[in-house]
């Protein structure tokens, strides 16, 4: 599912590499989703099936909102991108 998410992000127009060749948003979002999967002790499939509940935990008012806000909201933004992916499949 990780590779499918990667292809989805690329199709959505997220950058895979910066102009200087460094990894960009695609890899950042994948890495953040993987960390959340580890923290929640779930699989990609369980995340997909429970994405709406997980987003509530990391979004405004959720018990892990402080994590969702880290790095200019990168964690919650990566989850919301994954939610769009999950809703397509």
Approximately how much helix is present in the residues? over 70%
Characterize the quaternary organization of these chains.
single chain
Which percent band covers the strand fraction?
under 5%
Number of helices: 5
Shape: globular
Rounded average pLDDT:
97
Sequence of secondary-structure elements: HHHHH
Structural domain tally? 1
Uncertain ranges: none
Biggest sheet record = none
Structural category is mainly alpha
Measure the end-to-end span.
11 Å
Please provide the count of β strands: 0
* Integer-rounded radius of gyration: 13 Å
Question: What would you note in describing this structure?
Answer:
The protein has 89 residues and is mainly α. The chain has one domain. It contains five helices and no strands. The longest helix is centred in the last third of the chain and has 24 residues, at 65-88. The N and C termini lie close together (11 Å). The model has no long low-confidence stretch (mean pLDDT 97).
What is the secondary structure topology, with strand pairs?
Layout: H1 2-11, H2 25-40, H3 44-49, H4 51-58, H5 65-88
Helix pairs in contact: 2-5, 4-5
């Amino acid at each position: 599912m990780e590779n499918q998410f990667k292809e989805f992000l690329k199709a959505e127009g997220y950058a895979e590499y910066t102009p200087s060749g460094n990894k960009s948003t695609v890899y950042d979002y994948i890495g953040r989703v993987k960390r959340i999967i580890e923290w929640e002790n779930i699989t990609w499939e369980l995340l997909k099936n429970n994405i709406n509940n997980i987003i509530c935990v990391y979004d405004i008012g959720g018990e892990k909102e402080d994590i969702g806000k880290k790095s200019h909201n990168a964690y919650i933004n990566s989850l919301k991108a994954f939610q769009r992916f999950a809703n397509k499949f």
